[in-house]
Amino acid sequence: MSHRLRLVEMRAGEQGVVFEIVGGIGSKRRLEVMGVRPGVTIEKMTGSPFGGPVVIRIGHMRLAIGYGMASKVMVEVKKAGPS
Amino acid sequence: MRVFLVGNPNVGKSVVFRRLTGMYAVVSNYPGTTVELITGKMRAGKGIAEVTDLPGTYSLEPTTEAEKVTVKMLRGIEKDDIAVNVLNSTNLERGLALTLQLVKLRRPMVIALNLWDEAAHTGVKIDARLLEEMLGVPCMPLVALTGEGVKALVDSLPRARVSRLDFDSARRWDEVGKIVRRVQLITQKHHTLLERLGDASLRPLAGLVIALFVLGISFEAIRLIGKGSIRWIFEPLFEGLWSPLMLRLSGLLGGDGFLHMLLIGDLIDGGIDYGQSFGLLTTGLYVPIAAVLPYVFAFYLVLSLLEDCGYLPRLAVIADRFMHLVGLHGMGVVPMLLGLGCNVPGALAGRIMESAKQRFISITLMAIAIPCMAQVAMIIMLAGPYGAPALALIFGTLAALWLVLGMILRTTLRGESLEMVMDVPPYRVPFLRGLTQKVWMRLVSFVVEAVPFVLLGVLLVNLLHYFKVIDAIGRAASPVIVSLLGLPPESTGALVVGFLRKDVAVGMLIPLHLSFKQTIVASTVLAIYFPCVATFAVILRELGILGTLKSTAIMVATVVTVGGLLNLMLRLAGY
Questions:
Q1: Start-end of H helices in chain A
Q2: Chain A residue closest in CA terms to B313
Q3: With an 8 Å Cβ cutoff, are B97 and A33 in contact?
Q4: Are B420 and A45 within 8 A, CB to CB?
Q5: I need a labelling partner for B314 at 20 to 30 A (CA). Which of A64, B169, B253, B293 fits?
Q6: Phi and psi torsions of B125, nearest 5°
Q7: 3-class SS at B50?
Q8: Do the Cβ atoms of A52 and B97 come within 8 Å?
Q9: Rounded to two decimals, what is the model's pTM?
Q10: How many whole angstroms separate alpha carbon B521 and alpha carbon B399?
Q11: Phi and psi dihedrals of B106, rounded to 5?
C-alpha cells in the first residue's frame, strides 16, 4: 500500500519516492541540483510545525527545505511497516 | 597558465586553495563561505600558475550572486587554463552533475575527490581508476584538510584533458546515475554519536532548546573572555607599563602644546586616563588594542568554533521560520552573525541570499540594527557604569528595531523572498590548526584594518577640536542633536567621527559624562547611524548607487525616529 502526499504532510520518519515537483521552473531547478528529483527515495527526518522547514535525508545527505518549497514536492509514501 | 578551483559549495575548495598556494582563505563547514574570487600563486612544474578559488555552485545555471561570479569566470577559461573540479566524495552524484556541465564547456580539467577519508568512514567506496577511465580526465583522491593527496593532485595537472565523454545534455541526470552506479559502492554504517546529536539539533523543539543553550553559552563565553583578558592582561599592561612611558613623554613635550595634544591629549588629575585623554598614543592605542581587541578575539574564537563544527546550518534550520518574518530565510543568520563581528564581512555575506530583495534586506538590516563587536565593546565601556538595565535598553532597542524594520521592509519592498534549500553538512570535530589559523587571520585583519582608522579618527577629533570646527558643526546640528535627541552639543563630534570608526565615536562620549538617558540615546543612535566607511564601501559595491541611496534614506529615517522616540519615552519615564 502506498499513497501520495505533499512532503510537508508526511510524518517524521516516513520514507517515500518523489514522483513530482509542482511549481515553477526556478524551484524545480533549485531542488533538482540538490538531488530532489522524481524517482529519488527520501526520508523525512523532522516535522515542520508553524511553517518551519522540512529536513529530509537522501542517501546519507541531509537537506533542509523551506516550508513553501517543501509543499511543492509530491511524494509517494511507503506505508511505514515494521522494518 | 591559470588554475580554477570549481565545485559545489562546502566541498573544501578553499582548503585545497590553501594547500596549493599557501595563502589563507576563510574556510568554514557550511555552504557559501567564499563569496568573492580569491587569487593566489602556486608552483607548477617549472613555472608559476595563478590559482583562483571560485565561489561554490551547484550548476552552471546560477541562482545566487556568488554563483553568477563563478559561471562568468568559467566561461572565460582559455585553452591552456585548467579547471580543477573539486568533488565531495561523500556526495558523488551531486558533484558529478556539475562535472558533466563542465565537460560540455570543453576545457582541460582534473577532478579532485576531496573528503576521501570521510567517504570511507561513512561507507562510500569510489573506484577512482574507473571514473578516470569513463571521464577521460585525471581523478585524484584527496584529503585536503590533512594534505594527503595534494602532491599527487599537483603532479596530475599536466595530464589535464578535455573530457571525451559524450552524452545528451537533456539527460544529464541519467548519465550521472549511470556513472555513479558503476563507480560507487555504498555499505551501510551505523549512526555515530555525533550524527545522532546532529539530528537532535534539527528537530523543531529539541533544536530550539539546543540553539538557545548554544547561543547563551556563546555570548557568556565572549563576555567572560573579553572582560577577563581586559582586566587581567590589557589594563595592567597599559596602566603599569605604558602610562609611565607616556608621562615621561608628556614631560619631554613640556606638558602642553599642539604636539602634546595630538600625541598624549589631556592629562586628567596629572595622569593618563585612557578613556578621556584622547591622544594618539594614549586613547588612540588603548581603544583598539585594550578595549576592543579582547572582545573581537573572544567573538571570533567562539564564532569560528561554531562554524567549523558545522553548527551554523543547524541554527539556520531552527531560525528559518523566524527569519521569514523579516523576509529572509534561515541562512540569513549568517550575515547577521558575521556582522556582529564586523559589518564588512556581514555585508559581503549578503551574497548568499538568492533574491535581490533578500540581499537588500539582509544588508540594510545588518548595517542598521547589528552593532559590530568593536562598537559593542565600547558601549559596554560607556554604559557599563549604569549597569545591566542600561545595556538591556540599548541592545533591546536594537533587537526590537531589527524585527520591526525587517517586517516593514518585507511587506513594503517589491520582489520575491525565496526559500532555502540547504545542505546540512555533518558535524565535524574542528581541525585545531585550521581553527587557530582562522582566528589568527581574522585578528590580523582586524588590527591591520581597524588600528589605522582608529588613529585617523582620534587625529581628526583632535584637529576638529583644535580648530574649533566641532563647535561650529555642533551649533549647526543642534536642532536635531539637542532638541530632538536631547544630547549635549559636543556629542556632534562623535557623529562625525562615527562615519570613520564606531568604536572611537563611542569613546568620544566618555569624557562628556553623559546622563543615563543621554548614554542610552547616544549609544543606540550611533549604532544605527551610518555604518563606518569600510562597511559603506562594501554596501556601495553590493547594492549599487541606487540601492545604497535607498538603504541610506531608510537609515536616516530610522535614526531620527528611534532616537527621538527613545529620548521622548525616557523623558516621560522620568529620566
A1: 25-33, 67-70
A2: A64
A3: yes
A4: no
A5: B293
A6: -120, 125
A7: strand
A8: no
A9: 0.90
A10: 15
A11: 55, 55
Please, are residues A42 and A36 in contact by the beta-carbon 8 Å criterion? yes
| Contact between B91 and B184 (Cβ < 8 Å) | no
Cβ-Cβ contacts under 8 Å, A36 against chain B: 421
Say how far apart CA B84 and CA A2 lie, in whole Å: 44
A59: contact with B, CB 8 A cutoff: yes
- Give chain A's length: 83
Q: Which amino acid belongs to residue B62?
A: P
CATH numbers and ranges of domains, chain A: 2-78 (2.30.30.90)
Interface touch B63/A29, C-beta < 8 Å? yes
What is the grid cell recorded at B202? Answer: 534539527
B379 with B349: CB under 8 angstroms? no
The C-alpha angle A73, A79, A83, rounded to 5 degrees, equals 120
CA of A19, closest CA in chain B: separation in Å?
15
- Indicate the helix (H) or strand (E) that contains B457: helix B432-466
Calpha distance B559→B561 (Å, rounded): 6
- C-alpha B419/C-alpha A63 separation (Å) is 13
CB nearest to B320's CB, from A30, A47, A52: A52
Give me the amino acid identity at B445: S
Cα B516 to Cα B129, B364, B487, B488: the distances in Å are: 71, 29, 11, 13
> What is the ipTM, given to two decimal places?
0.93
- Range B62-82 burial, b when 16+ CB lie within 10 A, else e: bbbbbbebbbebbeebeeebb
* Grid cell listed for B355: 533574491
- Among A residues 38-57, those touching chain B with beta carbons less than 8 Å apart: 45-53, 55
Q: Please report, for chain B, the start and end positions of each structural domain, with discontinuous segments joined by +.
A: 2-186, 204-572
Superfamily of domain B2-186 in CATH is P-loop containing nucleotide triphosphate hydrolases (3.40.50.300)
Helix pair angle (B204-229, B293-309), 10° resolution: 150
Looking at residue B286, its amino acid is Y
SS3 B112: strand
Chain B residues whose C-beta is within 8 A of a chain A C-beta are: 58-59, 61, 63, 90-91, 93-94, 97, 122-124, 173, 186, 198-199, 202-204, 207, 313, 316-317, 320-321, 324, 329-330, 419-424, 426
Per-residue pLDDT of chain B (575 residues; tens, 9 = 90+): 899 999 999 999 999 999 999 887 777 777 777 788 888 999 887 789 999 999 999 988 887 777 888 888 888 888 789 999 999 999 999 999 999 999 998 889 999 999 999 999 888 999 999 999 999 999 999 999 889 999 999 999 999 999 989 999 888 889 999 999 999 998 876 667 777 777 889 998 899 999 999 999 999 999 999 999 999 999 999 999 999 999 999 999 988 889 999 999 989 888 999 988 989 999 999 999 999 999 999 999 999 999 999 999 999 999 999 999 999 999 999 999 999 999 999 999 998 898 999 999 999 999 999 999 999 999 999 999 999 999 999 999 999 999 999 999 999 999 989 999 999 988 888 888 889 989 998 999 888 888 888 898 889 888 888 888 878 887 888 888 888 999 998 888 888 888 888 898 999 899 899 999 999 999 999 999 888 888 999 999 999 999 999 999 999 999 999 999 999 999 999 88
CA closest to B101 among chain A residues: A33
